[in-house]
Write a structure and sequence with these properties.
- The complex is a heterodimer.
- By secondary structure, chain A is mostly helical.
- In chain A, about 75% of the residues lie in helices and about 5% in strands.
- In chain A, a hairpin with a 2-residue loop joins strand 2 and strand 3.
- In chain A, helix 6 packs across helix 8.
- The radius of gyration of chain A is 19 Å and the shape is globular.
- Chain B is mainly α.
- In chain B, strand 2 and strand 3 form a beta hairpin.
- In chain B, helix 2 runs antiparallel to helix 10, helix 2 packs across helix 11 and helix 7 crosses helix 8.
- About 0% of the residues of chain B have low confidence.
- The chains are: A mainly alpha, B mainly alpha.
- Chains A and B meet through helix 4, helix 9 and helix 11 of A and helix 5, helix 11 and helix 13 of B.
Chain lengths: ~300, ~325
């Protein structure tokens, strides 16, 4: 039972991590809390539902699960990436030089806008997401791991490794790090700062889209509110791991996922969210720099 | 602070109009005006926290809820009448504000928004899940109307005058506060906290005070609303409510007292008139927030913009007279 809860928590944690990496990257580069990241995730999920239903019901690809999953993922990634870049272009870029409170209010506005646009066009009821994973499970030490869970871990871990490889070893990744370090200097070195910020939004939103499809298919349903909650928890993970720290975001996501599963399983499922929010507040109060973050003195 | 947008005369005129309003207006509009009054108080309470002290609070609806539920719960268990419960509503909401203020002291900037958001969600979930105390999602109903010396406030017009008195008090309070030593200290904290503290301003204490006062005002509005509707449920005190309040403040211009009044009126009345498009209410709120931040971060009555226009006009005049 305990091990089972841990496994469920780790799965949840990988999803939060995938989102938290995005939030932390955006924050590291633009100093904006990307409040609508959860909404990008939700849109990815909705695109996934549309494509997956179309493909499974239409009987394309001879009902091949793998091909359906891949096509769904690619389309959801594309849609989410476009949305993420659009949000950056319309809500963040024009006020990048203004006080941070402005871009934060604008970020909240974009989040509300996307949520409401979904309600207006698709309704506020939940949609059933077809199961896109191979069926079956493995038994280890009395607990069950389904193939779906393995698939989630493999895909999200793969994305994370790919992303950190990109960041560390490619020319573009290094340029991105320079932009995060100092935008002015990066500009002087001939890096097109705005283009690299767009690139960041593209990458992290595509990752959120993948997370959206995986979560939707794993839990079986999608509604307009999933993004808000997932976004808040991803934010908690980001803060827990230390803002701007990619490894920290992964770690934070896993901790939050496991904690949520354990609280839900052992304490109270109804009050699960209260405790997660309480955790967020306590983390911010007692360790505002997160687990892996370093303490930085406030500049005058 | 720039408080010269409305002169004393125009305030007096506005007050007189508000005073005679129910004589001419049909009941429906009086009801509308009552709700506008409630939202003006709420928006001003948030304006105190965001505008004066610069603490971006996304959980203001929680204080509103605490105020309403204080009256509801006191009535449900002890049948305590309105005017006795009224101060308790303010005090409990203010204490909640103090409680939220404590963790906020430790964090800065946007993190304040997230802490307060989480806090607001916690309060809402508590109202929802603590069924013994609050009856959960069903809410509490049947509170008695307010009574003063055997005269019960029942009709819409009477409620309107009650809220009018409160709005006048709150607006007066906000003006006096804004130009007081305390208000100026808050503005110093808002503009630059480190400089403010090196000038000897006790930043922590003042931030707590901002939260306490702002929460108390919101609690007052909650108590009046609970008495008027004679029904409260957790649904009215969630995140969206906080966002609507934030939007009212940003429309009016953060820290701008008449602007925020106007913002509250616009954001309540316009959706009410366009009832058949009520689905579009929140999407417009979202859009308005983005648009305002992009094009008019100072709000529709923003002083910055006006000032630059006057400065520009002055420059043009100078240039003309120069040669």
């Amino acid at each position: 039972m305990f091990l089972q809860q841990i496994i469920n928590g780790v799965i949840l944690g990988f999803i939060y991590s995938t989102l938290a990496i995005g939030m932390t990257m955006v924050f590291g580069i633009t100093q904006v809390i990307h409040f609508s990241h959860g909404e990008v995730f939700m849109i990815g999920s909705f695109i996934g539902v549309g494509v997956a239903v179309l493909l499974t019901e239409g009987g394309f690809f001879g009902g091949s699960i793998l091909l359906t999953l891949v096509i769904t993922l690619i389309l959801a990634m594309t849609g989410a990436a476009l949305l993420g870049m659009l949000v950056d272009r319309t809500c963040y870029r024009p006020i990048r030089q203004k006080p941070r409170i402005n871009s934060f209010v604008s970020a909240i506005g974009s989040s509300i806008f996307i949520q409401q646009a979904v309600i207006l066009t698709l309704g506020s009821k939940f949609r059933i997401f077809p199961f896109l994973f191979p069926k079956g499970d493995i038994h280890i030490l009395g607990s069950v791991i389904t193939y779906a869970q393995i698939a989630i871990v493999v895909v999200s871990l793969g994305l994370m490794i790919l992303f950190s490889f990109f960041l560390k070893y490619t020319r573009m990744g290094k340029a991105l790090q320079t932009v995060a370090e100092n935008q002015k200097i990066a500009g002087l070195l001939g890096i097109n700062v705005n283009r690299f910020i767009s690139l960041t939004f593209l990458i992290v939103s595509a990752m959120a889209g993948v997370a959206g499809v995986l979560t939707g298919s794993y839990y079986g349903s999608v509604d307009f509110f999933v993004g808000f909650m997932a976004g808040l928890k991803a934010f908690t993970s980001m803060v827990l791991g230390g803002v701007g720290n990619v490894t920290g975001a992964v770690l934070g996501g896993l901790v939050i996922g496991v904690a949520e599963a354990l609280i839900g399983g052992y304490i109270s499922n109804d009050n699960k969210d209260i405790l997660v929010f309480l955790m967020l507040i306590l983390i911010l109060v007692f360790r505002p720099t997160g687990l892996l973050g370093e303490r930085i003195a406030e500049k005058i | 602070m720039d408080l010269q947008i409305f002169s004393k005369k125009s305030w007096l005129l506005l007050f007189l109009c508000a005073l005679v309003f129910p004589v001419f207006a049909p009941e429906y509009y009086v009801e509308l005006a009552f709700n506008v009054g409630i939202y003006i108080i709420l928006a001003q309470s948030l304006n105190l926290i965001i505008g004066f002290a610069g603490l971006l609070n996304l959980g203001q609806a929680a204080f509103f809820g605490v105020g309403a539920y204080t009256y509801g719960v006191l009535w449900k268990f002890f049948q305590i009448p309105f005017f006795v419960a009224f101060p308790f509503s303010i005090i409990f909401a203010a204490l909640t504000g103090l409680l939220l203020g404590l963790p906020v002291l430790r964090v800065r900037h946007d993190y304040i928004a997230i802490v307060t958001l989480g806090f607001g969600e916690i309060i809402k979930l508590i109202l929802n899940n603590w069924t013994d105390l609050t009856d959960g999602p069903n809410g509490i109903y049947g509170m008695a109307p307010p009574q003063i010396f055997g005269w019960a406030i029942r009709s819409r017009v009477e409620y309107y005058y009650l809220v009018l008195v409160l709005v006048c008090l709150v607006v007066f309070f906000m003006y006096r506060l804004g130009s007081s030593r305390l208000g100026r200290a808050w503005i110093a904290i808002r503009e630059d906290e480190i400089s403010a503290s090196s000038l000897g301003i006790k930043t922590n204490r003042l931030k707590l005070l901002a939260f306490t006062l702002g929460a108390g005002l919101a609690g007052m509005a909650g108590c009046v609303l609970a008495a008027k509707h004679r029904f409260i449920s957790p649904a009215g005190f969630g995140f969206y409510e906080s966002i609507i309040l934030l939007c009212m403040v940003t429309i009016g211009g953060i820290g701008n007292i008449p602007g925020v009044m106007l913002g509250a009126a616009i954001l309540y009345v316009v959706p009410e008139i366009l009832r058949e498009f009520s689905d579009f209410r929140m999407i417009t709120v979202g859009l308005a927030m983005i648009a305002l931040m992009l094009f008019r971060p100072e709000g529709i009555l923003g002083k910055e913009k006006r000032k630059t226009i006057w400065i520009q006009a002055g420059r043009i005049l100078k240039d003309r007279s120069a040669p």
